[in-house]
Write a structure and sequence with these properties.
mainly alpha; 11 helices; 68% helix; globular
Length: 303
């Protein structure tokens, strides 16, 4: 609630004290900039996927899938796009003054003194909240990996603590390393991660909507000798191919593919990373259909 109130206040100040109409009148369009913004938006939505898995598991079993989808989808899309629109306006107003002083400039748009201090507090509090959610999400990812190989769903409190401290520590080091050019380095980092997120998302979506349709054997996910085995060579191979096919088209500050210049600096890697593995996985599953349970099997149903 603190963050929402601060955001609404900043948006109101932005529109009240600055000529947004003049910014909207600038209709210069660049395909490279457009695809860059689409890439950042896509990476945000894809990265939000683990949150859905981490927290929707606590909903009552009777919760409507449609309501869950709309709540998650609209909440993520509306919230992210509102924040990104605000950031675009702020960056356009600031020009070159925005780089290296992003937070300070946004706060100074319409506040000073005690109000500015409260806004700084809301930003810091929001970072703490998000870091807590991220720490839980990183632990759940590690727990999924570990349990899949050890056939053990429970992880000790000590190991949970070590996982969380380790991931938060690594994240802090990465943030400190890029603090002098945060926006540039963060953008490059997000785009590079997108190359690894996108094929996973494509395979996951095709598998869920075209084949399994929620018919999972949940206990077998933690059994390396069960239905799903230790490795899914088919999916892993397609995933790796999905990552590699993007490399010639990636455009970041620390790596640029050989085909980017021919496309006028446009990064289309995430488009290929979505289409190629999705099509290949669909074709592979049709050629060798897997054995899918007739219904969802939950752990409580084991004998």
């Amino acid at each position: 609630m603190i963050g929402v109130l601060a955001f609404v206040f900043m948006f109101a100040q932005l529109f009240a004290h600055h000529d947004i109409g003049a910014l909207l009148a600038n209709r210069h369009f660049s395909i490279a900039s457009f695809l860059l913004s689409m890439s950042l938006s896509a990476s945000w939505q894809i990265a939000f996927g683990p949150y859905v898995a981490d927290y929707s598991r606590y909903l009552p079993r009777s919760t409507s899938p449609v309501r869950t989808f709309l709540a998650v989808g609209l909440g993520s899309v509306v919230g992210a796009q509102a924040a990104m629109v605000f950031g675009v306006f702020a960056a356009a107003l600031a020009g070159h003054a925005f780089a290296h002083h992003e937070v300070a400039y946004i706060v100074s748009l319409g506040a000073s003194g005690a109000v500015a201090a409260m806004l700084y507090f809301s930003i810091a509090f929001g970072k703490l909240t998000v870091t807590t959610l991220n720490a839980y999400g990183s632990f759940m990812s590690m727990a999924t990996i570990v349990s899949a190989f050890r056939a053990k769903r429970a992880i000790s409190t000590r190991h949970r603590f070590l996982y969380i401290i380790g991931m938060v520590g690594i994240s802090t080091l990465v943030a400190l390393a890029g603090r002098h050019s945060f926006l540039k380095e963060f953008t490059a980092f997000i785009l590079f991660l997108l190359a690894f997120f996108t094929p996973w998302s494509a395979i996951n979506l095709v598998d869920f909507y075209c084949f399994t349709r929620s018919r999972y054997d949940v206990p077998a996910l933690s059994n390396p000798d069960g239905r799903y085995g230790r490795w899914n060579a088919k999916a892993i191979g397609i995933y790796v191919l999905g990552v590699l096919v993007q490399m010639p088209f990636i455009s970041t500050s620390f790596y640029t593919g050989p085909f980017v210049d021919a496309l006028g600096g446009t990064d289309i890697s995430w488009i290929l990373g979505l289409i190629v593995p999705g099509v290949l996985y669909y074709a592979a599953m049709r050629l060798t259909p897997p054995v899918i349970p007739e219904r969802l099997i939950l752990p409580v149903e084991q004998d």
